[in-house]
Amino acid sequence: MTHIYNKTSEKSKRQQLRNNMPPAERIVWAKIRGQQIEDCKFRRQYSIDAFVVDFYTPELKLAIEIDGESHYQDGIPEYDYERQAFLESKGTKVVRFTNQEIYQDLDGVLERIRQVICELRGITPP
């Protein structure tokens, strides 16, 4: 099997993204780090092949993406679609949220993440 996770070639890209997280990502990271949701360990700025996802849990192959303003520029939605199709072809489930969702309904976003974790583990959420 080819090594596609956290490739050394993507290390500087991951570090740069971690050091320059947008505000919406910082908010989510503060709520999911340290196994705060369903005792699930997330990593931030995790690479899968040449793509870096915002948050990832290897246990469940779950990626969480936060779509900021840059995701609505010309050509980016198509790129995101192709990128997500590649990630899903490698067995990764991708859940996307917008900055607006983070700012306006953080509790709802966190609840959705919790639900997806439970679904992937095959358990009924409490």
Automatic annotation (TrEMBL):
Annotated keywords: Endonuclease, Hydrolase, Nuclease
InterPro entries in the record: DUF559, Endonuclease_DUF559_bact, Restrct_endonuc-II-like
Keyword hit for Transmembrane helix: no
Signal peptide stretch: none
Entry superkingdom: Bacteria
Molecular-function GO terms, alphabetical: endonuclease activity
Domain DUF559: 11-117
Gene3D superfamilies, A to Z: VSR Endonuclease
Pfam families associated with the record: DUF559
Protein name per Swiss-Prot or TrEMBL: Endonuclease domain-containing protein
Lineage: Bacteria, Bacillati, Cyanobacteriota, Cyanophyceae, Nostocales
